[in-house]
Amino acid sequence: MSRIAIVQRPPIFLNRAETTGAAVASVHEAAGAGAQLVVFPEVFIPGYPAWIWRLRPGGDMALSERLHSLLLANSVRVAGDDLAPLREAAKRNNITVVCGVNERDTDFSRSTIYNSVVVIGPDGTILNRHRKLMPTNPERMVWGFGDASGLRVIDTPCGRIGTLICWESYMPLARCALYAQGVDIYIAPTYDTGERWIATMQHIAREGGCWVLGSGCAFQAHHIPDAVPGKAELYSNADEWVNAGDSVVVAPGGKIVAGPLHNELGILYADIDLERVGVARRSLDTVGHYSRPDIFRLHVNTAPLRPVEFSASPGGPLLNGQPVAPGDEPQAARP
User: Fold this and answer.
1) CB 173 within 8 Å of CB 200
2) In a domain, 293, yes or no
3) Is 143 part of any domain?
4) Of 103, 132, 168, 210, which is the active-site residue?
5) Would the pLDDT of 222 be above 90?
6) By three-state DSSP, how is residue 222 classified?
7) What SS3 string covers 13-42?
8) Catalytic residue among 99, 158, 166, 210, which?
9) How many independent structural domains does the chain possess?
10) Peptide bond before 46: cis, by omega within 30 degrees of 0?
């Protein structure tokens, strides 16, 4: 048996450092309650850009630009040390952490944001980073498109973990990619809520024969700091539940064992038994005895998709370690 914890609490919106600190405090709390795995919502650091669902498309572009600028400035550089406090908390508590982040690209333009989820092992190392494959509707004005290099299932002390973000769970081929890798614990950080979403979590538990953890965003208007641009006009009712959360734990076969946590803040706990995965797949294993590979096959391109490839001829000039285009060589390198 393993104890899992789903944190359903608001971030400190558009503040990376303070939200990371809040996540660290929740990790310590969950570990103190015996959890071996703690899960945070979609883009918890530094918060889901909920304003995109209220700003009229093509409307106040100045406000959109101010909000996006703040989000970019507070996004996470996964390759840097922005997650160091959270990694240290995982290591100190010997706990696995799954956390959604707004990730700032550090490889190319350094200006694109991705909706990402990271898995941090109990030794503090980042075991995986998955970028959302398909942002939904107005989300495409905020986040870039991910690739399948992080569409992986990871071994952890509490089982084999796979993650899909929000409506990626409506992509049957993405689900199949996780099933094929033997996922025990399917984790779905999300901004979606309600009966249809919970039914989807139950369907996946039946289809995949796995544990399903739906980790929802929950906050009221007053949790958005007054300093956030547009706060007064977009969220005038301080007591409004902007998002209900509905975090839930579903056992293999589809039975809800914890939650949903609706219009409520806190940590949802559940004890999970991995033996139930094998039992559930005895009658239905969609990528095993219940598959027909002679008829249906899925190909997944897991290579990182790079917009630019640099290459150099053997012995060609370098500038700061990078190949130099002809005509741009330093003076000393030119014939």
Assistant:
1) no
2) no
3) yes
4) 132
5) yes
6) helix
7) CCCHHHHHHHHHHHHHHHHHCCCCEEECCC
8) 166
9) 2
10) yes
User: Based on the domain organization, do 234 and 332 belong to the same domain?
Assistant: no
Token code pair at residue 233 = 């006009």
As a whole number of angstroms, the distance between CA 269 and CA 236 comes to 33
From CA 327, how far away is CA 335, in angstroms rounded?
11
217 is an active site residue: no
Establish if 77 belongs to a structural domain: yes
Tell me if 34 sits within 8 A of 3, measured CB to CB: yes
Note whether 325 and 235 are same-domain residues.
no
Residue span of the structural domain in which 332 resides: 305-335
Extract the tokens encoding 218. 């929950």
User: What backbone torsions phi and psi does residue 39 show, to the nearest 5 degrees?
Assistant: -125, 135
- Residue 197 CB burial class (10 angstroms; 0-12, 13-18, ≥19): buried
Q: How far is CA 147 from CA 118, 129, 152, in A?
A: 14, 11, 11
- Within-domain flag for 124: yes
Which residue in the list 42, 103, 139, 168 is annotated as catalytic? 42
Q: Does 25 have pLDDT greater than 50?
A: yes
**What distance in Å separates the CA atoms of residue 116 and residue 79, rounded to the nearest whole number?**
13
Contact status, residue 195 vs residue 168, Cβ threshold 8 Å? no
DSSP string, 159-197: EEEEE--GGGGG-HHHHHHHHTTT-SEEEEEES--SHHH
Active site residue 231: no
Supply φ then ψ for residue 36, to 5 degrees: -105, -15
How do residues 237-270 score in pLDDT, each as one tens digit?
Answer: 999 999 999 999 999 999 999 999 999 999 999 9
Known catalytic residue: 99? no
Buried/exposed code over 96-114 (b: 16+ C-beta within 10 A; e: otherwise):
bbbbbbbbbbeeeeeebbb
The domain that holds 267 is classified in CATH as: 3.60.110.10
Do residues 274 and 326 both lie within one domain? Answer: no
The reply to whether 190 and 66 lie within a common domain is yes
Average pLDDT over residues 72-82: 95
pLDDT confidence band for 335 (50 / 70 / 90): very low
